[in-house]
Design goal:
The complex is a heterodimer of chains A (238) and B (201).
Chain A (H helix, E strand, L loop, with lengths): L2 H5 L2 H5 L5 H13 L1 H19 L7 H12 L13 H13 L1 E2 L32 H5 L4 E6 L5 E7 L4 E7 L8 E9 L2 E8 L3 E6 L6 E8 L10 E6 L2
Antiparallel strand pairs in A: 1-2, 2-3, 3-4, 4-7, 5-6, 5-8, 8-9
Chain B lengths: L1 H7 L4 H6 L5 H8 L4 H23 L2 H17 L11 H20 L2 H10 L8 H4 L5 H11 L3 H13 L3 H8 L3 H19 L4
Chain lengths: 238, 201
Amino acid sequence: MTTADVHALTGAYALNAVTDLERASFDRHLTECPACRQEVLEFRETTARLGAETGSELSESLRARVLAEIVVTRQLPPRVAGTGSRASRRWVKRAAIGVLSAAAAAALFVGGINLGRQGPAQEQTQAQGVPGAAVLAASDAVTVAARGTDGGDATAVVSRGQGQFVLNVRDLPALDSAHTYQAWLVGTHGPQSAGLLRPTGVLTGGLPLDTKVIAVTTEPAAGSPRPTTPGVVKVELA
Amino acid sequence: MATGASVFALPSATTAVDEAPPSPEALLSRVTLGDEQAFAGLYDLLAGPILGLVTRILRNRAISEEVTQEVLVEIWRKASHFSAERGNVKTWALTIAHRRAIDRVRSEQAASDREERAERLDLRRPFDEVSETTLATLDRERVKVALSSLTEIQRESINLAYYKGFTYREVAEVLHVPVGTIKTRIRDALIRLRDALGAHS
């Protein structure tokens, strides 16, 4: 391929009219050719207008699906270390690895929010006589905590063996009387309502096998069949 | 995070609507920080154009919605990778959408199948049928005029490549034009469109 040939690929590249192999090779070329980089940028602005020319009617269900999915989708860190944004994302990572042992479930009831691993099982006396006690006492119980996007936090204790969960939310933002919080068990078949919640409260219930995330969204006071807003807190189960 | 959360918290979705609509760039910078409400705003600005483009390429409504969902989730995931040096947010989003849609076309169509598809294409169909089915806004008119200024082979190349997922080699084959020629025709066509449309509005 001659040099002239290489540069001439800008148009096909901007239209994605190249094979993966050609794209990879041209990507390399772009790193060392500012002229082509500039041209591709301009072509993309142009083709975006060809694309944007076509409108399409949106369904509410698509919106709900997308907003429900981002609740359970972790964002990628910046490619280059920036200022600020990395630090604010750190809690997400910590929450994701914040799997505690069964014994640490006790922390739930002393109001602590423990992130990080703890040692083998200890005394479980706090588990007696409270909602979800069986879950808390289960040998396979796992506790995961997460902070709310607008304040507050949530702690979930789940037992896959018993197929049960306990969700404890605390200090979520106050809501007016027309709204409530609603918890969702999100699995491979989408979100399933787990019940309504106050800004601070506990919910227990059955845990479908495929549940990956327990999320809480703001909904009309009567609750919704599906989430209609972005979540205020999400607990990612290991 | 505690300070970040309070800065980016909105009282509610409804009060945000009453204010001047934030730009996609402003919303994306908040999305970078995990702001889901900002993402909902970004969705409202971008989902229509994305679904329009994807549907134009894939035709099937259900598959198009599926791909649109993937695109929007990718925007959420990769928000921090956006660089203003590489265009505005809408261009970035539509570039992702186009790539995803084309990938879907190619993965679903085996090479032989694609050949058959090429035969089924009615090459006489005017390119600007797109414009006719949509609202005649000023920008669409400009795009239409710009497209009509292309030669037939340029217009058809753009059509096959951009909307049908053909590689330039396949375009060359279908149009019976040498590969090298098609490559430059496509580039010439984009230069012409770029100049006709002027700076980004």
